[in-house]
Predict the 3D structure of the following.
Amino acid sequence: MAGEILDNQGRGDAGWSWPPIHPEGRKYGVIAVAISLVPLLILDWEIIGWPLLMLSAGVFAFFRDPERVVPQADNAIVAPADGIVSLITTVEPPPELRIDDGSGHAGLPEGPVTRISIFMSVFDVHINRAPIAGTIRRLVYIPGKFVNADLDKASEENERQHILVERNDGIAIGFTQIAGLIARRIVPSVKPGDTVAKGQRVGLIRFGSRVDVYLPAGTDPKILLGQRCIAGETILAELGTQGLLEGISQ
């Protein structure tokens, strides 16, 4: 299915298949299986071995990397992460995405913007994707704490990585990968200067975390607080589109 064009008129061929495992997770899955086989095959401790073997399957599942159908509308900003929209608030973007970094490329402008926070539990896919097509202008890693990623202060206190993507027309989107209580490593797969497609994989965060997205001024979310997002598929916002949207939890 990868690379195939599908549309809302029925063009293309879609079907379910087992998702592949991200290379970063294969070694952890193999290690988990090896550990579970020791009590099963050597010590004959089935009461321990079988739960460990089931946990090994969970490790492989955590690193699953399913294909996604990415909307190609030019003004669409897609979700960079799977998970629940846990916060929508107005803030100043992080200084790492705003200040002059000496690269010759401008950062995000000064002034408050809408920040959408997507919380990923250990059951969500943890592959992160580019919200727009463009060039990676910044990739800034910040060491920090590991407080609950669902808390607002995690944006300023936790270990995190800021990414700035700039379109050909100069519009830029900043987003931040944030480690959480269990997450202990942010793994990028891009670097400054790389050109990415909308929805392209840009990295992952291991074992539960959060991603913040900073919308450009004059753009409101097209999603609701509490809504579930699918990375590369859910449209977070449409550039230049504003307006209140309401939903009912039921």
The chain has a mean pLDDT of 89.
